[in-house]
TrEMBL record:
It comes from Acholeplasma hippikon. This is GTPase YqeH. GO terms for molecular function: GTP binding. Pfam families: MMR_HSR1. Residues 153-206 form the G domain. The gene is yqeH.
Length: 348
């Protein structure tokens, strides 16, 4: 009888001992962690994991749970995941709402998500706002899943959305690794919630996130983990704001009210628009610098409030009327959409 293949209990990759460069390598095939997960846990060194770019095959009559960080809402509007509703029951878990300040209206957030989903034809059966680190939210999710009486439940979504944190809380799994490392889960992990099969799937690929440009020990310090403290301001024509060396916003014409949501340790600096690119390129202020920068101009209408989604590390809310220029690496994921949540502007 052929011996069953061991899998890393951290990322799910098949353990192998013959190719150091391949996923799942360990010094011996009887190890419980692959070498990459072992190094990640003990030394903070991250390498060797990959992103799938296709959805897994789901069992018939399954419940599909799309997990998205509240920071990634822009990606849901154009993702191929939105067509899953044709064949399965699909619910959306909007995770990490704990990042938003307490004064944020959850009802307005939910209403705006539903409005955008309708505009972009994103099909769904239900939308749930939650925090994977909130025990009450996890218990509510358990009750929801058990009441639906599905035999198989799949957690899908982009990397670092919180799928594995939710999976561990639902199933009692203590081994799967939860760190801000993109593409950590390598294959489907499975567990039980009473008589329900829960599957944690590898994070789907989204180009332009920080892990493509920065080493793990750098970008993990930029990704938000605690509640944002909004930074309010006004930018006039020819003003600019530079954020962490990663992105700059210059005002070409008009006046822009802005609210910045990033991790506390991500510095920002105000400058004049004609100096913004030079400051970023010469790394005069920030710890992070890209090898090149490009820009794109946007027109902000006066009847809308917008949010600029800055890869996977933050959001900049802006309003016009104005014409603005976003400066960033040409391949960094940056999007401009109508704002999803209420602005927290005390005084400007």
């Amino acid at each position: 009888m052929q011996k069953s293949m061991n899998r890393c209990i951290g990322c799910g990759a098949a353990i192998q001992s013959h190719d150091k460069e391949a996923v799942g390598y360990a010094k011996s095939s009887d190890q419980v962690f692959c070498q990459n997960c072992f190094r990640l846990m003990h030394y903070g060194k991250a390498e060797g994991h990959f992103h799938p770019d296709e959805l897994p095959t789901f069992k018939k009559d399954s419940l599909i749970v799309v997990v998205s960080s509240v920071l990634y809402l822009d990606t849901l509007l154009t993702s191929p995941v939105k067509r899953l509703n044709d064949d399965y029951k699909v619910i959306y878990l909007i995770n990490q709402i704990d990042l938003l300040p307490d004064a944020t209206s959850k009802s307005i957030l939910l209403g705006n998500i539903k409005k955008r989903f309708k505009e972009f034809r994103v099909a769904y059966d239900e939308i749930i706002l939650m925090s994977a680190i909130n025990p009450y939210d996890i218990e509510e999710l358990k009750s929801y899943i058990l009441n639906k009486r599905y035999e198989d439940v799949y957690l899908i979504g982009l990397q670092n959305s919180g799928k594995t944190t939710i999976f561990k809380s639902l199933t009692g799994n203590k081994d799967a690794i939860v760190l801000p490392k993109a593409a950590l889960t390598q294959t489907i992990l499975s567990g039980k919630l009473e008589n329900v099969n829960i599957y944690d799937t590898p994070g789907l690929y989204q180009s332009g996130y920080l892990h493509e440009f920065l080493p793990y020990d750098v970008y993990k310090e930029i990704l938000p983990t605690k509640q944002f403290k909004p930074r309010n301001g006004i930018l006039e024509t020819d003003d600019a704001i530079l954020i962490g060396g990663i992105l700059g916003l210059s005002v070409i014409k008009g006046t822009v009210k802005s609210v910045l949501y990033v991790k506390d340790n991500v510095k920002h600096q105000l400058s004049k628009a004609d100096k913004a690119l030079s400051i970023l390129e010469k790394n005069q202020v920030f710890d992070v610098v890209f090898e090149k920068y490009g820009y794109k101009d946007y027109v902000l209408k006066d009847d809308k409030k917008y949010q600029i989604t800055m890869a996977d590390f933050g959001i900049l809310q802006v309003t016009g009327p104005a014409t603005v220029r976003v400066i960033a690496h040409p391949k960094l994921h940056v999007s401009l959409t109508e704002g999803f949540f209420r602005w927290l502007i005390k005084s400007i």
